[in-house]
Design goal:
Layout lengths: L2 E2 L3 E3 L5 E3 L9 E2 L8 E6 L5 E5 L4 E4 L17 E6 L3 E6 L6 E6 L13 E7 L10 E4 L3 E6 L4 E7 L13 E9 L2 E6 L4 E6 L4 E5 L8
Antiparallel strand pairs: 1-4, 2-3, 5-6, 6-7, 8-9, 9-10, 10-11, 12-13, 13-14, 14-15, 16-17, 17-18
Length: 216
């Protein structure tokens, strides 16, 4: 797994710039030999990249470390999914009762940590969710969502300007993870500050920033 090949680069506008079509560059020997497969990759606006291996380990790199050998984060359970916001990451453990970990910037309380934690260096357990059976995590720009598919309850925290949490009555930056919506089957978000969710009735719902009709 050490011969990861790059197919392109990112230009100043955040767009992928291919060299020649499907032409690979020199091998980037980044991962230790024990890594057999990378199953997911996410990145944020600071050019930080998190890789999830088939063994459930997390590796993080950035623009200055692309050619350095990576080391997995230590003292973590195996992970099964990852997600990224503008400047932070979430990971969901692959355990009988999954747990949620978060790290990165917490200035809008998007990680659910208290007011004194504006930056979290390493994946850290989000204690307020450890009793919930969270099956799905979802990051938007500065807010986060956590779905319990057993109860179909969607939890969330972080920035709530422009209705990003779908609950206008919640204050703009809310670090306390709250129950937001019931009867939710799936939730989908991205870096465009709007969110789509499906409910158990089969209907599709959207909320958040609607500039240029992104939602509707």
């Amino acid at each position: 797994m050490s011969n990861i090949k790059s197919l392109g680069d990112i230009n100043g506008n955040g767009e992928t710039k291919q060299t020649d079509k499907f032409k690979t560059l020199d091998p980037i020997k980044t991962f230790p030999e024990e890594v057999t497969k990378i199953v997911d990759v996410v990145s944020n606006y600071e050019k930080e990249i998190v890789f999830l291996s088939s063994e459930g380990k997390l590796y993080q790199s950035n623009a200055e470390k692309y050619h350095e050998k990576l080391k997995a984060f230590e003292n973590l359970p195996p992970m099964k999914s990852i997600s990224s916001g503008y400047f932070y990451f979430l990971a969901l453990s692959n355990e009988e009762k999954p747990r949620v970990y978060g790290w990165g910037k917490n200035t809008q309380k998007q990680l659910g940590f208290d007011n004194n934690s504006n930056y979290v260096q390493v994946p850290t357990l989000i204690e307020s969710l450890k009793e919930e059976n969270i099956d799905q995590i979802c990051c938007c720009g500065h807010c986060s969502f956590f779905l319990n598919k057993t109860t179909n309850i969607l939890f969330g925290c972080g920035e709530n300007t422009d209705g990003k949490l779908g609950k206008p009555e919640i204050k703009e930056d809310n670090y306390e993870i709250q129950k937001l919506h019931e009867n939710v089957a799936n939730v989908f978000g991205g870096h465009s500050n709007h969110t789509i969710m499906t409910k158990t009735d089969g209907k599709l719902y959207g909320f958040g920033f609607n500039f240029n009709g992104k939602i509707f």
